[in-house]
Amino acid sequence: MHPQQYGDFYAELNNGIRMPLLGLGVYDMYGLEAETAIHHALEIGYRLIDTATMYGNEVEVGNAIRQFSVSRNELFVTTKVNDVDQGYDQTLRAFEASQRMLNCGHIDLYLIHWPIKNKRLDTWRALERLYTDGLVRAIGVANYMIPFLDELLPITAIQPVVNQVEFSPYLFLQDLLARCQKEKIVLQAYTPLVRGERFNDLKLQGLAQKYGKTPAQIILRWALQLGISTIPKSINPKRLKENFDVFDFSISDEDMAFMATFNEGYRVVPDPMSIF
DSSP E strands: which ranges in 143-276? Predict the structure, then answer.
């Protein structure tokens, strides 16, 4: 597979740069396992790699990228400021540390990982500084529910380009999606496959059979057609290929509407509103 198979499945961020809608999340990958998975993903055609300081694998992400024979400008690399590093000065230092760990040229997107009380606004000011100084190509947030956006957006000098949250057909946050679309913020889904916990749902299996695809492929295609960026995680070469093989079919409008009824409020990660 090759990057051109992405076709039109890029998002133009609100600052004008382009980001692949489908990428690889590398949460809970370590050491050689992480490097090998990223190398397989890049060979398959993935061009978006999402990591975070909290994941403890920025070094491995950088190693895999440097070892792969593709122009750095073809790749889109995201990392995130750790919760314990939030605050204005601390965030600036954390970004420098991430740059050293990744050692892969520029960072494309830098996110606030969680909206930490009493620190998140100062952290955002630091991200704006990094962007204004030309040290990062884009800045955004993660785990920002509507109340956090309500707090942030009126005071921003620079608009977030991405809001990365837990999102799937079984956690279909329509109000948040609509708000992000209104604000020209790309919603990015992590744990989009619900860690496989809903693959046995008969409704989903019926669609998989209808389209001759797997449950995972149906969910990922659903997200792409909604304009949602999605970053499924896998270390298995077969699964990596399966998750990328979603560009040769489309889900009908009727079935997209049917999938909108799957919502159960089903979470595999704690609700940010319950923590912060």
Answer: 162-166, 186-190, 229-230
